[in-house]
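Narrative of accomplishments. A recurring question from our advisory board has been how the design workflow behaves on a single, concrete structure rather than in aggregate. To address it, we present the structure tokens for one chain from the evaluation set, followed by the sequence designed for it. No filtering or post-editing was applied between the two.
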């Protein structure tokens, strides 16, 4: 078990005044409602998509994982984030917060325990890194409403981004795709099912492909078939394109692939949806052929996923 992130992140029950039934109901309702920022994000996304290079750059930035897994806690936990974690404790969602599972430029993932002792994954979007600010600023640049958004504060836009991942997870799960079950989202903190056990996360496909973890071709074939089935469901049922689907964003747990990292998924109406889909298909073809699966042609996969000949 990894060490607790910070002693004072764990509060005793007396210190945390539990919400009442009515309060919880209200919180639940609040979660259902779209915030203005979320609507704005959607509009911006659909009307002024980022230029191609920018999309590439965002993805590149995402890959640049921090080497030091236990970098200063303070950098992530500014007062507002700390308060958000407290609020989730008060609501009885989080019991205790443990060590870092992953430390990227845009988000950190922690293992936590529910008050009942169940493992949880807590994804905290960084609101105070230059990278995220730059990334999101560029993402909305060129839109006439940019000023309006900037005035409201980038922080609130990041909250909307976290809620977007929560909603996308729900939509994928509803379509029958195995994703971490979304549990709660508050400000820049997203709580979901932990994929793994005892705070030890399940492997990513990229890790499973290492020589020491050799799976048989049949096993890879089975994983591939399931991933393709998920892609069909994403497109035809959830009506979303993942837009960053690759061996880094698929975990493997209890014999099943699990899709993660869905904040950037876009609706089929997005002007770049088709381009993103083509890119996802190529990424999946590249990876699975590298592990020995005889992958169908691009055209075959594309028509299977979209249901178009
Ligand atoms: N539900 C989960 N259960 C266990 N581990 C998880 C879960 N979600 C994410 N992780 C771990 O955290 C890592 C980062 O998560 P994710 O891919 O969602 O974030 P990201 O947007 O890529 O962030 P980053 O900027 O850190 O790259 C994953 O590669 C995985 O190892
Ligand atoms: Mg990722």
């Amino acid at each position: 078990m990894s060490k607790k992130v910070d002693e004072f992140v764990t509060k005793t029950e007396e210190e945390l005044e539990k919400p009442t039934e009515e309060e919880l109901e209200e919180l639940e309702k609040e979660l259902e409602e779209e915030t203005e920022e979320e609507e704005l994000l959607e509009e911006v996304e659909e009307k002024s998509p980022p230029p191609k290079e920018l999309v590439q750059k965002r993805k590149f930035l995402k890959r640049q994982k921090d080497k030091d897994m236990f970098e200063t806690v303070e950098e992530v936990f500014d007062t507002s984030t700390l308060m958000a974690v407290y609020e989730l404790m008060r609501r009885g969602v989080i019991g205790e917060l443990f060590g870092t599972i992953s430390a990227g430029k845009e988000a950190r993932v922690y293992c936590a325990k529910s008050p009942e002792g169940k493992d949880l994954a807590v994804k905290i979007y960084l609101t105070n890194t230059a990278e995220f600010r730059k990334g999101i600023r560029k993402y909305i640049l060129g839109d006439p409403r940019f000023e309006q958004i900037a005035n409201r504060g980038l922080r609130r836009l990041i909250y909307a981004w976290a809620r977007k991942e929560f909603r996308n997870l729900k939509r994928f799960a509803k379509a029958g795709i195995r994703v971490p079950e979304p549990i709660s989202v508050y400000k820049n903190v997203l709580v979901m099912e932990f994929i793994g056990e005892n705070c030890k996360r399940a492997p990513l496909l990229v890790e499973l492909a290492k020589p020491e973890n050799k799976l048989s071709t049949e096993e890879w074939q089975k994983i591939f078939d399931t991933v393709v089935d998920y892609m069909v469901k994403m497109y035809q049922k959830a009506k979303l394109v993942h837009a960053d689907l690759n061996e880094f964003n698929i975990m493997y747990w209890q014999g099943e692939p699990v899709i993660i990292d869905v904040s950037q998924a876009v609706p089929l109406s997005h002007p770049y949806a088709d381009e993103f889909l083509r890119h996802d298909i190529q990424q999946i073809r590249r990876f699975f052929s590298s592990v020995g699966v005889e992958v169908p042609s691009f055209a075959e996969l594309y028509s299977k996923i979209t249901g178009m000949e």
